[in-house]
Amino acid sequence: MNPEMSIRLMSVIEMIPPRAKRVIDVGSDHGKLAVWCLLNNKAPKAVCTDIHKDPAQRTKRALADHMLSERSEVYCTDGLKGVELHKGDVVVMAGLGGNNIIDIMKAAFELTNDDVLHEVTFVLQAQKSIERLRKYLASTGLEIEDEEVCIDRDIFYQMLRCSYSGRPYTLSLREIYYGPKLLAKARQGEEIVKAFHKHLDDIYKIRARGDQEIRQMLQSE
Ligand SMILES: C[S@@+](CC[C@H](N)C(=O)[O-])C[C@H]1O[C@@H](n2cnc3c(N)ncnc32)[C@H](O)[C@@H]1O
After folding, report:
1. Predicted local confidence at residue 102, as pLDDT
2. In terms of domains, do 132 and 215 share one?
3. Is 68 among the domain residues?
4. Can you give the residue range of the structural domain that contains 193?
5. Does 50 share its domain with 119?
6. What is the pLDDT of residue 34?
């Protein structure tokens, strides 16, 4: 039976492309994402990591309770340390801070060949510092393929899917702060994205008082 899933986690799962060879859930905690993905054939195999012992054990237990131990591996480790990436992998990082996600990606990129990286997809749902994450993606040559927004218990969450092209690119300040794909969706009239951007407008107006880059971004409209 499927575990009870939050709107946020289901929105993250919807970003996972079809035909993933493995779903790699970094920061797996309760293990629900991997359990759901395996039960619903999002991927034949899952690898889960968590930096803390208790969540790693929770993940292991959740997988065992659903008879999924043979289709999964669980490691107590920092990010992707000790996990070799393969072509066809989808790496999910949800509920982590943007800076943490950047550090995990940087470490993994140092250890992985370019031809493998070209065939790995990343699904990211950062709790904060999304603008820093977008800057990192652009400077590293990770193309943002899609971005989505959901509302879970009155809180907006944004998630994105990206893959490596190896060609760094530039995002405008507005794209960094509002999301290039989300801006396109707002222009197409997607109501949830428009509401999210209105919510960001209010936040950025306050943050602009102490942040020159945000002031500049707001003036560049
Ligand atoms: C807020 S929970 C999110 C759990 C789940 N991914 C979700 O979205 O519901 C964050 C989890 O990430 C783990 N974590 C934080 N930093 C990590 C790192 N560098 N490597 C692996 N796990 C990490 C924490 O121990 C915690 O279990």
Report:
1. 98
2. no
3. yes
4. 171-221
5. yes
6. 98
Q: How big is the CA angle at 187 (ends 183 and 188), to the nearest 5 degrees?
A: 115
How far apart, in whole angstroms, are the C-alpha atoms of residue 76 and residue 51? 5
Per-residue pLDDT band for 28 (boundaries 50, 70, 90) equals very high
* 156 occurs within a structural domain: yes
pLDDT tens, 193-220?
A: 999 999 999 999 999 999 999 999 999 8
Tell me if 98 CB under 6 Å of ligand 1: no
> How many domains are contained in the chain?
2
Provide the token pair at 177.
């702060």
Ligand 1 near 14 CB (within 6 A): no
Task: Give the model confidence (pLDDT) of 69-110 as tens digits.
Answer: 999 999 999 999 999 999 999 999 999 999 999 999 999 999
Is 221 a residue whose pLDDT tops 80? no
Which ligand 1 atom is nearest residue 127's CA? 1
Query: Are 116 and 204 within one domain?
Result: no
Domain end point (choices 153, 170, 187): 170
Number of residues in the chain: 221
Clarify whether residues 98 and 156 are in a common domain. Answer: yes
Question: Distances from the Cα of 80 to the Cαs of 48, 73, 91, 92, in angstroms?
Answer: 9, 13, 9, 11
Which of 170, 185, 207 is where one domain is finished?
A: 170
Is the distance from the beta carbon of residue 59 to the nearest atom of ligand 1 less than 6 Å? no
Q: Is residue 1 part of a domain?
A: no
Answer yes or no: is 2 within a domain. no
50 lines ligand 1 (CB under 6 A): yes
**Please, which residues have CB within 8 angstroms of residue 84's CB and are 6 or more apart in sequence?**
111, 112
pTM score of the predicted model:
0.98
